[in-house]
Amino acid sequence: MVAPLQVRVRWVLIVWIFIISSVAFLDRVNISIASHYIIKEYHLSNIQLGYVFSSFVLAYALFQAPGGRISDKYGPRWVIALATVWWAVFTSMATAIPPTISGVVAAFICVRFLLGAGEAVLYPASNRLVARWIPTNERGTANGLIFAGVGAGAGITPPLITFIMLRGGWRLSFWVSALVGLVAGAVWFWLARDNPEEHPWVSTRELEIIRSGLPDSSHRAKGMLPWGRILASKDFLLMTYSYFCYGYVAWIFFAWFFIYLSSVRGLDLRESSYLATLPFIAMATCSPAGGVLSDFITRHYGKRWGRCGVSVVAIGLAAVFVASGSGVSSPRLASVVLAGGAGVLYLSQSMYWSVTADIAGESAGSVSGIMNMGAQIGGAVTSTLTPVIAARFGWEASFGVAAFLCATGALAWLRVDPTREL
């Protein structure tokens, strides 16, 4: 490698994880956009489609902790690169399921489960990179940018997948998603190194900045933390519960928002695809903004205000937006209000990951993996439960449950101590 002039390598890597994060959500949300055609071709009901959605999230949840452990052991460079190959394989395999087989629902569940297992490693691996590459007072910004990829990927997906589907069918849209992932993974493998000392582009000055900003690890036990110590932490358990609530709310937008606009609010496919991008634009904007705000407050007032305080306010506001948005009569105004809920929710995203990186150090992948399992279990629950609640009590009740969980997730942060290391 020839080093670019005065490059800040740590931010190059964070930007590329942002891109891979966007691709990951392209792969996982494309089925929601293509569901209009898949339901007709395979004669599926919304309940059956919910099982397919849940299979992805269930695998994604179950493999978070193993994915984090693997990342801690082998490093994020190889783990993320191999993961992108896995995603491409199982995104493509969905296109090969024949409509005539008797177990079509089981086939989709199997393929999506395996895709979810492969995607589970991404964020624990990225947090392992953050723990080694990013000074503490920059972690809110770094994680905010990484998770802006969630909103960017999910926001790009509706118009992109719709554009490709209308010209080449839903199968072509899945093949394009797979190809984009392979390219992003190849570039990552070329760019990344597990530790800053190993990277030929890192200057002496940048290495000093990184080392001086990492938490003091001299008093920590060497090696990976045992699971028992992680699970005994009150702070970790509170964050995991809060992240469960967070995941429940976020996955309403990932799995059901497009269908809600087109089937419940009566918008046509094209308008639904554009309005469905609003929550994800809000996520992509608010995630880095929340990280920058958190780092600013942390530098001036400490982690208690910068991490916990921002989370309480942001998630609490999300509860208000989500509760009120579904009751708005205009479908376009409702889209804006609900998108506001998604946006303020994502103001808190980087706090979960920044705190786990701070308190876990060399075990950041493992700790954040278990925490993210909580969020994905929340996603699996909402993928299945949301249409059931809606069918029995109406869609306002579905959003009301999400708002209640938001409120309790905000309160959990009041009892978290972000300075207490594991």
Question: What would your notes on this structure say?
Answer:
- This protein has helices at residues 9-42, 46-62, 64-74, 76-93, 104-119, 122-133, 139-168, 170-191, 204-213, 227-231, 234-264, 269-275, 278-301, 303-325, 331-346, 349-360, 364-393, 395-412.
- The protein has a single domain (9-214, 229-415), classed as Up-down Bundle (Growth Hormone, Chain: A), CATH 1.20.1250.20.
- The model has no long low-confidence stretch (mean pLDDT 88).
- With 422 residues, it is mainly α.
- 80% of the residues lie in helices and 0% in strands.
- Helix 14 (303-325) packs antiparallel against helix 16 (349-360).
- It has 18 helices and no strands.
Please give the domain count: 1
Structural class based on helices, strands and sheet pairing? mainly alpha
How many distinct helices? 18
The name of the CATH superfamily reads MFS general substrate transporter like domains
Indicate the CATH architecture. Up-down Bundle
Proportion of beta-strand residues? under 5%
Low-confidence stretches: none
Helix content: over 70%
